[in-house]
Every structure is written in structure tokens, then in C-alpha cells.
Amino acid sequence: MPGLLRDLVGPVLRLARHLLGPVGDLLRLLADAKGRVVGRVECPMYGNSSETPDALAVRSGFLARRRRLVPAETIEQIDGGTKVIGLRVERDSIRTFL
């Protein structure tokens, strides 16, 4: 496995393990590189593999009207105690949809 791919597999597998627990575990906060809240994880999104998510759908904004698509590669750390997922990018660089 190439070095970059191997470095990404660990965090993605940890993310899948954390997100696929009970429904209450899906309500995790997402914070950007500066520590600002991006939103709450709505659900993992799968693409090529049904075992590991490629991205997260995140609700944000007033009354959670806005949704963002957060690629799994942007995840830097997952804090199981506080249920916060830290990103390595700023929230302005994350695409919004719907």
C-alpha cells in the first residue's frame, strides 16, 4: 500500500467505527482547523466501498438548513470523549449543497 493511502486508511476506518454505532453517536460536532464549529454530522456517505465512508454529510447554519459535504481525507482527529471530529481545513473551504 502506498504511504499516503496507508496514512488515510487508519483515520477513515476509525471514523467508520465511530459513526456506525447507535443513532445517538451520529450527533457529533465537526470543528475546522481553527476550532470553529462547522456543524453536526448527519450521516456518513459511501462511494466506492460500502465498508468505509468517503465523506460526511454535515448540517450547519440557523435551524440546520445548510448542508456541507466533508471528504473523509480532511479529517485530522476524532475525540471519542467529547464526540468532536477535528478537520485539517477551514470551514470556508468545505462545499455546501442543498
Short description:
The chain is an alpha+beta fold.
Description:
The protein has 1 helix and 7 strands, in the order αβββββββ. 16% of the residues are buried. The model has no long low-confidence stretch (mean pLDDT 77). The protein has one domain: SH3 type barrels (Roll). The protein has one helix at residues 3-19, and strands at residues 29-31, 37-45, 55-60, 66-71, 75-79, 84-87, 95-97. It is globular. A 7-stranded mixed sheet has the order 5-6-1-2-3-4-7, covered by helices on one side. With 98 residues, the chain is an alpha+beta fold.
List the helices and strands and how they pair.
Elements: H1 3-19, E1 29-31, E2 37-45, E3 55-60, E4 66-71, E5 75-79, E6 84-87, E7 95-97
Parallel strand pairs: 1-6
Antiparallel strand pairs: 1-2, 2-3, 3-4, 4-7, 5-6
Counting H and I runs of at least 4 residues, what is the number of helices?
A: 1
Beta-strand portion reads 35-45%
CA radius of gyration is 13 Å
Give a count of the beta strands, DSSP E runs of length 2 or more: 7
- What ranges have pLDDT less than 50 throughout 5 or more consecutive residues? none
CATH class: Mainly Beta
Q: What distance lies between the first and last C-alpha atoms, to the nearest angstrom?
A: 36 Å
Strand order of the largest sheet: 5-6-1-2-3-4-7
Shape: globular
Total domain count? 1
CATH superfamily: PRC-barrel domain
Order of helices and strands: HEEEEEEE
Q: From the coordinates shown, what is the CATH architecture? A: Roll
Output the structural class: alpha+beta
**Residue share in helices?**
10-25%
Give average pLDDT, whole number.
Answer: 77
Main β sheet profile: 7 strands, mixed
CATH topology: SH3 type barrels
